[in-house]
Amino acid sequence: MALLPFPVVGPTYVNRSLPVSAQVTRNFYIDLSPQGNEPASLQPFPGLKPFATTGSGKNRGMGVLNGALYTITGTTLYSVTSLGVSTSIGTINGTGRCVLESDGTNLVITTGSTKPYTYDGSTLTLGTDVDLANSSTVTYNNRRVIYDGNDADVIFADLDSPLDVNSLNVTIAESEPDDMRGVLAHNGQVYAFGESSIEPYYNTGSGNPPYSVVTNSVEQLGLHAVHSLASNKDFVYFLGSDLVPYRISGLSVQPIGNPAIGQAIRNYPTSADAFGVTFRFDSLSFYLLSFKSGNETWLFNEQSGLWTNLSSGTDGSQHLISDYQFIYNKHIVADRKNGNIYEMDFDTFTDNGDVIQRQRDTLSIDGGTFGAPGNVVFMDRLELKIETGASLIDAEAQIIMQFSDDNGRTWGNENFATIGQQGDYTYKLEWFALGMFTNRMFRFIMTDPIKWVILSANAEVELGYG
Amino acid sequence: MTTAQEIINNSARDAGILADGQALTSGVNSSALHLLNRMIARWRNSDVDLGLPEVLAADTVFIDVADEEAIEVNLTLRLMVRFKRPIPTGLSQAGESAFEELQAKYMIINESGFDPALTQKYLPRKIPRQSTI
Fold first, then answer.
1. Which of A198, A295, A319, B63: CA 20 to 30 A from A449?
2. Closest-approach residue (CA) in chain A for B21
3. DSSP class of residue A372?
4. What value of ipTM does the predicted structure carry?
């Protein structure tokens, strides 16, 4: 009887038609290593290690000014030192998500419900200039802070003076008669995101404002969720007005969604409350898109171009991450539910002590997977290759295997298997006597607080009379 | 006591077409039940009458445990043939010996009688004692 490989590594891709795909990958990311023994593997998303606590209330955003971390919890702005000591600075009114942007001298804060604030390291100031608006977003480019304004306005603050605005420097993004949603500067270009258009601006160096729209480059596509805007060194990411996630590089706008994620987003009660965060570790860049009303978090891996899910607890709820900063040589994140600040850490296997449930629902396999389309498959043995030897010293970790012969509509018994003792790097993880099927998908669930890496799978199969 | 469905499930597991926690599809289940009834009927023709009528999947089958095992092994073999699975030699032999045991247990031996006339003629007579001089 032949031992044949079948695909176990893959993204989350639950199509409206489950026979097309009902794959789920939760709390893993896909790592492509073409030169490795395993060209693709599922690597565990890091756990959350306590770093600091701030006051009561929900996190509203984080920022960095001159090498120091700042965070807003509830209505209070805090500074957090490299030792995790937090200090209250002052009051930031409102309840919604904030954007914290540094201009090198000030931390500029937009709340969406008040005029912007600045904090210069000693004084917290609420803007009063009549030309300032209750902006939701702020960005910095060429010594100038830029805000989204009322209606279709884009507000260019005075040079090196973020709370002062010359009324001549308030311009209307007029390519489309839509309201302004957000602004973001990236690689020298300023993007003004409206409800149904995106206007890229470039710095002309003179005039009021000293910016002009890049000719013939207005996109007939808007920004749906203001705080889905996020960027890294290569791309600007956002959830488009058509509920599709996009990224921009230069003047090129590229959809990064797929039918499955599109269907998921359309099923949420609302997605206007989505927020996006970018981060990078192990030379991999990620865009995290989290939906409050949808109670779901998606993770886009730039390297593979594939999406997986992140969640907290054991019910697939929205992940805890609210915002991210790389500072103090640590990956620092804020908890969306409270004032906790964590370090994202590969050697931590819980989320602040809570279970991380990792899950992989594979593609359906059938006779065609093994070179005989239409044949039934008798499976006498299933071998799942994982990184073994990772059990805790006092207990062998367990993994649950279930299978579904109806494309994920119903699932069979939970079959527990141990993964060997700590240090047993040659342990074989196997299940036997798995019966006959026409098509089958497998589910693997892991909750033990250890390093889980899924590599590949082999099956001892016999192809039979169909 | 067990049901016909339990016998089918055990045989299907042994034949490698059913895993723990899995249910047979209705088509495979009907086919297995048909094979079971056909096997029992055929055994009846070979003088192995288990006293079972044609059973439904949910029917309780009143037979002893040894007979149950013989049925399961032989149904396993039939399922493997049905699904064109290679049959291990040991399993084949186990099926044969289980059937032979059933034959030995259930074989009907008719009473035999002797013709009285033959009895009179050929039965040894009492030999008169020889007189002695």
1. A295
2. A413
3. -
4. 0.70
Per the CB < 8 Å rule, is A434 touching B21?
no
Which one of A405, A436, A465 has the shortest CB-CB distance to B16?
Answer: A436
Asked if B115 is an interface residue toward chain A (Cβ–Cβ < 8 A), one would say no
Instruction: Kindly list the strands in the beta sheet with A144-148, ordered across the sheet, starting from the edge strand earlier in the chain.
Output: A138-141, A144-148, A153-156, A170-172
Per-residue pLDDT of chain A (466 residues; tens, 9 = 90+): 668 998 999 999 999 999 999 999 999 999 998 888 889 999 999 999 999 999 999 999 999 999 999 999 999 999 999 999 999 999 999 999 999 999 999 999 999 999 999 999 999 999 999 999 999 999 999 999 999 999 989 999 999 999 999 999 998 877 777 899 999 999 999 999 999 999 999 999 899 999 999 988 888 899 999 999 999 999 999 999 999 999 999 889 999 999 889 999 999 999 999 999 999 998 899 999 999 999 999 999 999 999 999 999 999 999 999 999 999 999 999 999 999 999 999 999 999 999 999 999 999 999 999 888 989 999 999 999 999 988 888 889 999 999 999 999 999 999 999 999 899 999 999 999 999 999 999 999 999 999 999 999 999 999 886 5
Q: Considering only CB atoms, which chain B residues are within 8 Å of A376?
A: 83
Side-chain half-sphere of B47: how many Cα atoms within 13 Å? 10
Separation of alpha carbons A212 and B99, rounded Å? 93
As a whole number of angstroms, the distance between CA B78 and CA A364 comes to: 29
Q: Are B81 and B103 in contact (CB under 8 A)?
A: no
Q: Is B16 on the interface with A (CB under 8 A)?
A: yes
- Name the A residues in 390-419 with CB < 8 Å from any B CB: 403, 405, 412-413, 415
Q: Please tell me the distance in Å from A458's CA to the nearest CA on chain B.
A: 17
Chain A residues close to B82, C-beta within 8 Å: 465
Helices vs. strands in chain A: H and E counts, helices first: 1, 42
